[in-house]
Amino acid sequence: MSTMTMTASSIPGGLASPSGSSHSHASKRLTNRMTNRYSVNAMYSLAAEQDVELEDELARAQKRLRDLKSRISSQSKKNFVLERDVRYLDSRIALLIQNRMAADEKREVAETLEEIDEDSGLWPDERKMNQYANLFFLLQSEPRHVASLCRLVSLTEIDTLLQTVMFTLYGNQYEQREEHLLLTMFQSVLSAQFETTTEFGSLLRANTPVSRMMTTYTRRGPGQSYLKSVLADRINSLIEHKDLNLEINPLKVYEQMIQQIEEDTGTLPPSLPRGVPPEVAAANADVQAIIVPRLTMLMEIANTFLATIMESMDTVPYGIRWICKQIRSLTRRKYPDASDASICSLIGGFFFLRFINPAIVTPQAYMLVDGVPAKHPRRTLTLIAKMLQNLANKPSYAKEQYMMSLNPFVENNKVRMNQFLNALCEVGDFYESLELDQYMALSKKDLQINITLNELYNTHSLLMQHMEVLSPNEKHHLRILLDDLGAAPGQVPRKENRSIELPLYSRWETPIQDLSTALMSDSVTQNDINYMEAKSIFVQLLRSMPQLADKRPIDLPGLAERAATSKDPVLVRRGIKVQALLSELESAGVVDASDQYKIIQDEVAAEMVHLGNAKEKVVLETRSLEAVYKTICDHNNYLRSQLEQYKAYLQNVRLTSSKEKGSAGGVGVVTVNGKEKKQVKNQVLGPYRFTHSQFEKEGIIMESNVPDNRRVNIYFNITSPTPGTFIIALHFKGREKPILEMDLKIDDLLEKQKDQQAMLDLEYVQLNVPKVLALFNKLFSKRR
């Protein structure tokens, strides 16, 4: 065994005891926990994975899976950053559209859109890098500090901090140690939230940094994978029925009904006036006749969604179930008299309100569907989400009385729902395995995070702001590290915000020469250690020599001898080592050569069967995650496309405003990316010609009313007479004038997209708004 080091900070008090007991108490409990043979066996298994690169099929499959998980984690972070940028630009562009943005605000947006220049950057010196390495090791391994910070920051600061916490500090979403440390942080945050909340009804419901944390956690790779596997098929089968109208709000049904009557007959009878109050609409017999069958159908659809979700319980990510478990246990502790139904409503408030329902209401944002669902299916999905929320939570019909008509769905399923929510909480704790992982982490030489300069400096700045609360004692490790670092640097320009591979290690280390000694106690003997190490080596040998893996019974001495006399130095070392261990165990009476070492032979055989099953699971998980990775990459492309549209729009606005200030001779001076260029006034670009089939193939045409036999003669001409304005002309071959011509402003298209209106109606054809925007961007953004 290689020499290992143990740090005082590696076994945090907040880890094993969220209430924050003393370090010595935690250490004592740790020793008690790690007094079984399983822990020693797990330690050797972890050590073997870390020290040796096996080359059998399982090892290769595991490596592929690890690489895939790493890519998903990295891509998830990129998407989180892009989503934050898109949200920010959405709000700024909205002001831009209304011509209310000041010049300095335009510059701010422009800077946000600048590309990152990887060749420049403000780099910390070696001393600072070491200090940051110490600080972030402490933050990662003692989650209570991060938990306290997340409670202290404002809502405007939380998104940037969450980026660092969720996708950098604990960014490897499939690495057990990091995931468990992140969940430990959640427990601290939730505990504090329960302590400070005065009313049961307001628990976890307000839009706070804590609720934002919980929502962000569900958007990570495992949560996205679950949503896609469980909801995508169900939602896609529903939205196929574009014309299925299941509206049950009597006022809306009444308005739709009289509109249809007017279209059919040309007039409205006096008995059906416009603008009636809700109660009059609800009392109308025809409205009631329309609504009744819709209620039945809605409840049938909601039941299929509910059944699908309930049947998927075993695939709900462990972390989400563990958070449900903490909500239940914390509620029982703080409110011992709370009913089971009340507790379940809090669990449902997290699982459905923060996780399931947003994906049902806006499936396109979760990449569960292609494009925005049509109007009627979109409304149906909203109603389904409301029904599930009323079922999971305490129903409230104060604002939407018409939802009371769906109460039978709630009454019929309430018992089932509470059973499901309670069953969600039935997962084991991870403290014992996490503490073992903590030991193993200390022997890793490659413990590191990928972090940008601005993440580094922002976290440093927030810690300094709240230092007195986080670490009031000058002798605390966090305080010592912050005092050494001093004031935080300011944020660097976006183009200089480079990424750093930051190694993590602690400055408080005590060498431990032999890990076995550290794990030994009264009930774990040296014989136990030797037995588990021998078993681990035999498994490694069989994996390294697959031609022997299927032979039964396993000839353990022969296997050791074959390894010891092979030409592979790694196998030779292992063979000699396990021969010595077998001899020691036989001398101690633990194993017996006369029965061919049956006890250890059986355990090695069982382990090989387990590994064979593990390979199948690894392959299946890899296939599933490949689909998730593709979805995340597609979403990344979509977000980048949105940013490109914003760039083009901003550039057009800058060109337009520059031209307005230009010379009378028709030539203005335009600033593009910091460089001045001359621009001819009213430069017309185009026309660019596209056939009907081209637009169909590229998905720009969503629906077409043009007869099939005439489509070959239809084409489109697109021109841009001025920046930000476009003309789409629909032509028929042989005719000089267009059949139809439409003037468009980019503002209108962006607003349509912002309001999730995916369709642009040209009478004969309906075009896809995001794809039209992308086409305009491709044709014109780089030609002005």
What key phrases describe this protein's structure?
3-stranded antiparallel beta sheet, 30 helices, 784 residues, disordered N terminus, alpha+beta, 13 strands, GTPase Activation - p120GAP, domain 1, 4-stranded antiparallel beta sheet
Q: Percent helix among the residues?
A: 55-70%
Instruction: Give the structural class.
Output: alpha+beta
Gyration radius, rounded:
32 Å
Q: Specify the number of helices.
A: 30
The stretches of 5 or more residues where confidence is low (pLDDT under 50) are 1-40, 42-52, 99-104, 113-121, 510-522, 660-680
Mean pLDDT: 77
Largest sheet: 4 strands, antiparallel
Keywords: Coiled coil
InterPro entries: RasGAP_C (IPR000593), RasGAP_CS (IPR023152), RasGAP_dom (IPR001936), Rho_GTPase_activation_prot (IPR008936)
Biased composition (Low complexity): 8-24
Protein name: Ras-GAP domain-containing protein
Give a summary of the structure in a few sentences.
With 784 residues, the protein is of the alpha+beta class. It has 30 helices and 13 strands.
Written account of the structure:
One of its GO terms (biological process) is negative regulation of Ras protein signal transduction. InterPro entries: RasGAP_C, RasGAP_CS, RasGAP_dom, Rho_GTPase_activation_prot. One of its GO terms (molecular function) is GTPase activator activity. This is Ras-GAP domain-containing protein. Keywords: Coiled coil. The protein has about 775 residues and is of the alpha+beta class. Among the domains are: about 235-305 and about 320-425, GTPase Activation - p120gap, domain 1 (GTPase Activation - p120GAP, domain 1); about 680-780, no CATH class. It contains 30 helices and 13 strands. It has a 4-stranded antiparallel sheet with strand order 7-9-10-11. Helix 8 (about 155-170) crosses helix 20 (about 455-465). The radius of gyration is 32 Å and the shape is globular. Residues about 1-40, about 40-50, about 100-105, about 115-120, about 510-520 and about 660-680 have low confidence and may be disordered.
